[in-house]
What we know:
The structure holds two protein chains of two kinds. Chain A is mostly helical. Chain A contains 20 helices and eight strands. Chain A has a two-stranded antiparallel sheet with strand order 1-5. A two-stranded antiparallel sheet of chain A has the order 2-8. In chain A, strands 3-4 form a two-stranded antiparallel ribbon. In chain A, strand 3 (283-284) and strand 4 form a beta hairpin. By secondary structure, chain B is mainly β. The radius of gyration of chain B is 35 Å and the shape is elongated. Chains A and B meet through helix 1, helix 2, helix 3, helix 6 and helix 8 of A and strand 30, strand 31, strand 32, strand 33 and strand 34 of B.
Amino acid sequence: xxxxxxxxILLIFALTMTACDDExxxxxxxxxxxxxxxxxxxPAHAKPAVTGVYDVMSYKGTGWDKMILGSSGADDIVExxxxxNWASLIAIDQYRWVPEEQGNPKHIWKYWQAYYxxxxxxxxxxxxFPALEGLNEELKQRYIAEVKVLxxxxxxxxxxxFGDVPLILTSQGYEDSINVTRSPEADVWAQIxxxxxxxxxxxxxxxxxxxxxxxxxxGTANALLDQVYLWQKDWNKAADAARKVINxxxxxxxxxxxxxxxxxxxxxxxxxxxxxxxxxxxxxxxIWSDYIDETNYVVLWGPFASWSWFYQPDPDFVRNxxxxxxxxxxxxxxxxxxxxxxxxxxxxxxxxxxxxxHSPPGDIHLMKWIPVNTDLTTGAIWSGGYGNVNQMMIRLSxxxxxxxxxxxxxxxxxxxxTYINMIRARAHASDxxxxxxxxxxxxxxNERKVEFCFEGKRFFDLKRVSKLSEFLGPLGWKDYMVxxxxxxxxxxxxxxxxxxxx
Amino acid sequence: xxxxxxxxxxxxxxxKKFLRIMKLITLFFFVGFLHVFxxxxxxxxxxxxxxxxxxxxxxxxKIEKQTDFRFAFSTELIDVNREVSVEIDNKxxxxxxxxxFYGTDIIHLKQGASILLYPKLLNANTxxxxxxxxxITGKVTDANGxxxxxxxVIIKGTLNGVxxxxxxxxxxxxxxxxAVLIFSFVGxxxxxxxxxxxxxxxxxxxxxxxxLDEVIVVGYSTVKKRDITGSISSLSANDLSETGTTSLAxxxxxxxxxxxxxxxxxxxPGGGLSVRIRGVGGINNSEPLYVVxxxxxxxxxxxxxxxxxxxxxxxxASSAAxxxxxxxxxxVLITTKRGxxxxxxxxxxxxVGFQNMINTGNVKMLNATQYGEVxxxxxxxxxxxxxxxxxxxxxxxxFPEPSQLGAGTDWLDVxxxxxxPIQNHLLSFSGGTEKHTAYMSISYLDQDGIAIESGITxxxxxxxxxxxxxxxxxxxxxxxxxxxxxxxSDWTDHKYxxxxxxILTEPTIPVFNEDGTLAGxxxxxxGPSRTPYAKVISSNPISKSFGLSNNIYAEFKPLExxxxxxxxNNNYSASESxxxxxxxxxxxxxxxxxxxxxxxxxxxMGWTWSNVLKFNKMFGNHSVNALVGYEKRHDEWNxxxxxxxxxxxxYTTIGSGAAETSSFGQYRGEESMVSYFGSASYNYKGxxxxxxxxxxxxxxxxxxxxxxxxxxxxxxxxxxxxxNFMPDFFSDLKFRASWGQVGNDKIGNYRYIASMxxxxxxxxxxxxxxxxxxxxxxxxxxxxxxxxSTQTDFGIDMAFMDHKLRFVADYFITDVTDMLLGKTIPVTxxxxxxxxxxxxxxxxxxxxxxxxxxxxxxxxxDSFGDFKFGAHANLTTYNNEVTDxxxxxxxxxxxxxxxxxxxxxxxxxDFYGYVCxxxxxxxxxxxxxxxxxxxxxxxxxxxxxxxxxFKDLNGDGTINNDDRQILGSPIPDFTYGxxxxxxxxxxxxxxxxxxxxxxxxxxxxxxxxxxxxxxxxKATTVLNAWHGEGTSNTIPVRRIQDLNNNFRTSTxxxxxxxxLRLQNIVFSYDLPISIADxxxxxxxxxxxxxxxYSGFNPDISIDQSGDYxxxxxxxxxxxxxxxxxxxxxxxxxxxxx
Lengths: 502, 1137
């Protein structure tokens, strides 16, 4: 072998050692879309970023889990037929609240998770929008205001359920996230007020396009403000805020028929102040579940849904309600009492053999958010759509009752009666005439229970007026349960301290 | 006295010299009986020697010991008893021999490494000796019947010898009738055959399992086994094929120390095994690196064991460090068979067998009657009307008296079958000329799953060839092609898998209705899900995959001592999967009306280019080997998947216009790696060894800040048995010590990036009208860097009784630092899946742990006439201690239910929970407990006699989170394997046992099968549930709800997972015919397991964890109802001609 060949071989080897740029070679192209490092560096990211903040409203944590904490944890919903798989739900219903929920789903955990997810998304927007260039300034300010209202709403739900909660206002890295501690409730309330008052002045009274129907408005901000002030017993400010909603140029008005609030016939009700929008496409977004494969939709609703088997209106409340007038149709229209067999399910002219398979006699099923055209024999929707009824989180009737409560506290019973009776009239119930303050406050509490039955508000109403012990004590509620326990997993992962009693 | 020649099939550049020697020997054969001394020592060394009245033979031996020469002479012609006294001071060999033979007529003639000694004058006596001799001819073959060229055939006590030719034939002239022929070959047992008037002697050479001259692959180079300085386990083709198993990992299991193999995915066909080298590694993926024919990556599953020539397992850092970054968990080097020059050899290996689920008797489920009784008991205990037998609210035809329910449906029997067939065939051709050799094989596997409607078929093709083009250039290739088809409805294997749902289905639900249609749950009393049978029968998933790997190399040899090898590998794989589920059904209370069609196609390709320059040279007694190399690797992949739903079952493809909904997705990515490496080793006289390696790796898996890592290692060894002062008692004695660092980047790609996720929200509330949102799905960590494993190893190799008895021991310490760990992010931060309600983790470098342990291997092999006996055993101890967790007090697993916690000072994934003290037997016992704390009940207000009593660890009179503690470890104290081989004439029996000792298993499945609650089906053990004082202390009273939370993680379900398994037994017989070698065998795998564990299978992989079997080492050892393993019986034949 010639020397030239030998050196040629060695030369090849030497060349291969040096022939390329390692750094460039080692940079793997990422094809997965936008990454966090370049998120919100482009004005095209602005709208999706804001949509992401709204997105948590389509999850169970802000839907059914909110209902469970507010209603199963109170006296309008009872757990039925539960087994070990629904241990978390049973525990809440039976006042065995523990930080380490058993079974799956874990309702307290999911409630906590969903609202904090919304807060993280909002924080990112509020942090990065000021530096974002190329976006119409007016739109930018509106987006910022929308996000502030949403962040306030999320904190509001956290603070009423848990008391002191971590007040996080910036995006977090891992180290921040595990060093999180609980902030005093007052600080959280102050931040909620700050966000709402700042947003209120920017937001429009209403939007012109139905494409924006689900967005928060000045009315949303004021309705939330009124509720925050009620919690703070600042009756004047509560009344002022409520009055702004009532007098809004958005033209809020009560839906004529109570049932139409829940059966999907009136998707853009004038009564809606803040709505969690539900729609179906590749997936169905519903109150009950985060992600429903469309093939399952036939078993989603009412008597047919698996959760309905466990989450049932309290029979005592529905059947033996002494408060409600005989003419008041509200409970009737949103429940299905299997004993009463109100539906001829098999269309044979009588009520024999009409029990839905999920409904042994004695059960009562919830019919709120059941589309009006549901086939009650199978659960299927007769025509069109997937029955994903929009869920009003705040509606005018609540603002009326808030306003009435503030007025009563301020000594203006007569004006309060106007608003109470508007709601009662819609319900075909008789007018209230008393002007006794205590009596009226008690009536308002009852009215709220019926008007918003099973919607997850009852526990928090009782908590706000310090009547948990009176109403829930006999059911097993104990004094320390004024706040829900913080999920144990989160206590374990962070520096938070548990609520007393757990 | 050593009898090895300088030569060998693996050292082709020496063979010419050797042939010259043989020519010379043949030239001198007429001198009669020659005597051989041989040694392998350095030439050109000067000799220093002092003797007084020593026999000439002794003196020659001493010279051999100092040099590389050996002497050949006839005892007839040289006076071996002559005593000499000499004093030689630093003379060369010629001068030294002149001194030794001063005054005689003996001439010394140097020829290569041999020195012939003969008298100047040959006389008539010598020629007369020649005439009495025979000529003997014969053929030498290897164990597989392949002709074996180059075997030394020597007449005992002489240097009279030849080598077998290209076809294995030899012919040796003038052999005395009472002579003994010695057949020897590198890596094979030396055999002595008495001539006894025979003129034809055919012989089969047998591999020497303890052959110290066996050449093994150690990463970019080869080394003789005797020269190994690190800790390496080596398995040859024989070790692998003898078990008759079709799974390579299974063939390895139990055979070597330090290698822990456990089931990764139960007993499913196609399911892999998890391989752990020396302990449990770090927290993340701890699979070793697999290198097949020099090419990184891949796993064992694609290979047929019969295709494999050898497996080397590099256990310590000094061995693995040449693989640097990816060697932290050890390296498994696999070398496939290559052609050998000689006549074409054809081999067929085939087997047929049957598989059966094992240990199914360990857990018995309630039959229908028992189910009814237990349900009634449960309702009766709660004071509620019993459902079965006269409940007015329930239809009497579906809820009769339990006794009328009969046995009902045995779902395990419905869903799993006995004697599922398996067949495996391999046909190979091997051979070639001196310059061109090739190996070709084709193999086929057809395996039915033990679950109905499941199975796998695999077809593999391989072509390996080598070509010597010039004396300085060699080229070759390794090409393999395979495809496989997997059918099966449910290959998932976790808590929610098919096996789990099968055993939990109620026996009162029939499989079919009376009209032959599929049945479903008949009443809302049961859960609203389809039966497992209906699910399986109405879906038809199939996945096919195809892979091609092609490796070409060229090896240049510009100088005698310098080799440059460049090799390029490219590989392609493609797979497609199609699923069709007919969900148009109406079964009992469940119905649906959609057809779900899904499919995915993926394609990936990659290449590796590797360049290595090697230097090998002897300088006298000094042997130096060195290499430098450079390697680049790139992979890219893309897959597209879709899903459509139809109302009509006639649609079977995705995305047609009739679809109710369709969705599509794509996953695309790439990965690159660059490595520079170097290695140098030196030894002096085969006694003192020192080796150093270094590797510098860059990986695209890390952010730009920390892509490169550098990993060095060193090792030393001392072969005491080479020292003159050592007694012959030791056939081999070597001390080894090594230290090194290796890395780990097994975290998946793009983990330093946090991508934004897309979500949908409808502002209109109208269907199909969504706006897309962007949300954070994880946290980025641009500072991510290599995990480093620092390993220290001390070892000793010993052999006695001419290598019949062998012993190896090692002690290892592995410190893993900067552990790559997925740390759970609190959802308070807003990060975590809202859809699934799960935690997300961020990969960080955190903490450290230490794995240490002892490894022992011992073996004994001997034969007594027709009897042969062999025994081998190995044992590895495991000591895992977490030494640092950063600022974390502890780490938890990812399961919904936290069952493990890892603390500093503890071991990875320790079980964590309550201590169960048995059952509250009486109300007064319960009352006394409740009185302990005035503020709270002892457990819950709903606790009743018959519920578990947990231990009040902090003594505050109430049970809460603070009453949990570490309960034990899922990591075994030690694992072991042992086996025996018995041979009698043509019969052979081999057994192999494998065991694990001291590991705990959390029997979550038993928890499910014995827990309170109405549904689903339970184990028969609940028939003995507590029903009054003293009736049970282990199974709680039957209640409709578990209000005491008896099912919380506690010692109640923690069991000893130790086991001993008869892994493999093979009985074989060689047919006594000459035209071909034919061996029949019958083998059994996984036949008996001795264990106290009450579940189906104690062999829970230490990293099979989490609810979905996909967690990390932080929640391990939890049996959530995995597929049980199966036994396999096989009948097979090996034919070679």
